[in-house]
Amino acid sequence: QVQLVESGGGLVQPGGSLRLSCAASGTIFNFIPMGWYRQAPGKEREFLASVSSGGGTNYAGSVRGRFSISRDYAKNTVSLQMNSLKPEDTAVYYCAYGRNYWGKGTLVTVSS
After folding, report:
1. Which residues, 6 or more positions from 67, have their beta carbon under 8 angstroms from its beta carbon?
2. What are phi and psi of 102, to 5 degrees?
């Protein structure tokens, strides 16, 4: 069993930055990718970024160049550095381990 706990969400002004973290516990395999998704009110959950076992990263077009994902394999954590935030980035952000494990999410609100 795997548990994921996100942290770092909050209220930020447009143009600001936030760093989200996700702590994974349980049986964690480094070869299983981890990623970040988000779900805005009234919208479907969307993929943002992922990091593979070799350190390769993949980003959605909407966040490429603004968001950066990183993984600490020793600490079983994955982070998402978010810069140049926009009001449309407001959503609940979820950490994922593979395709079957999800955290409960952390709310990010971008507003002045």
Report:
1. 36, 48, 49, 59, 80, 81, 82, 83
2. -135, 145
CA distance readout (Å), 99 to 19, 65, 81: 23, 25, 22
In sequence order, which residues have a C-beta less than 8 Å from that of residue 68 and are 6 or more positions away?
Answer: 49, 57, 80, 81, 83
Q: How far apart are CA 13 and CA 11, in angstroms?
A: 7
Six-digit token string for 64: 């490429």
Cα–Cα distance measured from residue 88 to residue 46, given in angstroms and rounded to the nearest whole number: 13
Q: Do the bridges between strand 10-12 and strand 106-110 make them parallel or antiparallel, or are there none, so unpaired?
A: parallel
DSSP at 27: S
Cβ atoms < 10 Å from Cβ of 73: 13
Q: What is the pLDDT of residue 49?
A: 98
Write out pLDDT tens, residues 6-30: 999 999 999 999 999 999 999 999 9
> Beta partners for 110?
12
How many whole angstroms separate alpha carbon 38 and alpha carbon 43? 9
